[in-house]
Design goal:
Layout lengths: L6 H13 L2 H7 L4 H15 L4 E4 L2 E4 L1 H23 L9 E7 L1 H18 L3 E7 L2 H10 L4 E5 L8 E15 L19 E5 L4 H12 L5 E6 L2 H9 L5 E4 H8 L4 E5 L6 E8 L7 H12 L2
Parallel strand pairs: 3-4, 3-5, 7-8
Antiparallel strand pairs: 1-2, 5-11, 6-9, 6-10, 6-11
């Protein structure tokens, strides 16, 4: 039986692997769920082996599926290089970069840099997603992401890294809070307080929850919002305390009755790093993005 697949089949398979479900993969590929399921079954029939393990919470790749995903990503990267080299002849082809990063990079440092980059590169698209640093590393190693931005406290393994920005986390308190006059605070001193945090599956909130768990405590959230500005307004009205990037806290403190207080914990002071598998294997538009990020380091 023939093992030849269409490129669209391989792209669909990668979408499924990256989203963790056939439904999510079908949506990313702009394909009906029934059609996507049939294509995957046809691929498995052609290979004579299962590529995915189906479960209630989505799908996981089998050993054969991981091997196929690895080679499919290599082919996708080669196609990106082809698009780059033929760009002057094929105006309809666009570059695509998948960039993963933590909360601070996404909200505080990347918007301005990416806006300028995209304005200069109208034929390049960027897919930006927020993840914990160790998840970013794994995604870049696996080829799921092209570029990552991580905290230097995370083991980057075989990846190449380059400095990006300093990222300091601070405590944010109402000026009326009993601890507001302190020059610094330990995170443990806040664990008995009500917290105001980011809504959704925020990488920052997962990061803070992890440190609270290691201290034997659990963060108690009174409310969770989508923006740092909203969080600071809640803190100003004494709803609770918060921990956020210093840049966001200082911007809000300039026009709100709150104080941004440095944390004494070592993990609160981080160097953000750009990480890639290797510059030499990246398409030109991806290398240009890395250079743009370095210029703003």
């Amino acid at each position: 039986m023939s093992h030849r697949f269409e490129l669209s089949d391989l792209r669909l398979f990668l979408h499924i692997v990256e989203s963790g479900s056939i439904t999510g993969g079908a949506e990313r590929a702009h394909m009906a769920l029934a059609s996507a399921s049939a294509r995957i079954r046809n691929m498995e029939d052609a290979l004579g082996t299962a590529l995915l393990e189906r479960g209630r919470r989505g799908v996981q790749t089998t050993d054969a599926g991981r091997a196929l995903a690895h080679h499919a990503r290599m082919m996708a990267q080669q196609m990106e290089q082809l698009r780059d080299e033929l760009g002057q002849y094929a105006q309809g082809l666009k570059g695509h970069i998948r960039l993963l990063c933590n909360t601070s990079a996404m909200t505080e440092f990347l918007p301005e840099v990416l806006a300028r980059f995209l304005a200069r590169h109208p034929h390049t698209d960027i897919e930006l997603e927020e993840k914990l640093s160790y998840e970013v590393v794994q995604a870049v190693v696996d080829g799921v992401a092209d570029v990552g931005i991580i905290a230097d406290s995370t083991d980057s393994g075989p990846l190449q890294t380059y400095p990006f920005r300093q990222d300091h986390l601070v405590a944010v308190l109402s000026k009326k809070h009993p601890l507001a006059r302190r020059k610094s605070l330990a995170f443990s001193e806040l664990l008995g307080e009500d917290f105001v945090g980011l809504s959704g599956d925020s990488a920052l909130q997962q990061h803070l929850s992890g440190h609270a768990t290691r201290a034997g405590r659990r963060l108690q959230y009174r409310v969770r919002l989508r923006s740092f500005d909203g969080i600071c307004r809640m803190v100003e009205h004494q709803v609770g305390v918060a921990v956020m990037p210093a840049t966001a806290a200082q911007d809000c403190a300039a026009h709100m009755d709150i104080r941004a207080i440095p944390l004494t914990d070592g993990w609160s002071r981080r160097q953000l790093l750009i990480c890639v598998r290797g510059l030499e294997g990246l398409p030109g538009h991806t290398r240009e993005l890395i250079l743009a990020l370095q210029r703003h380091a």
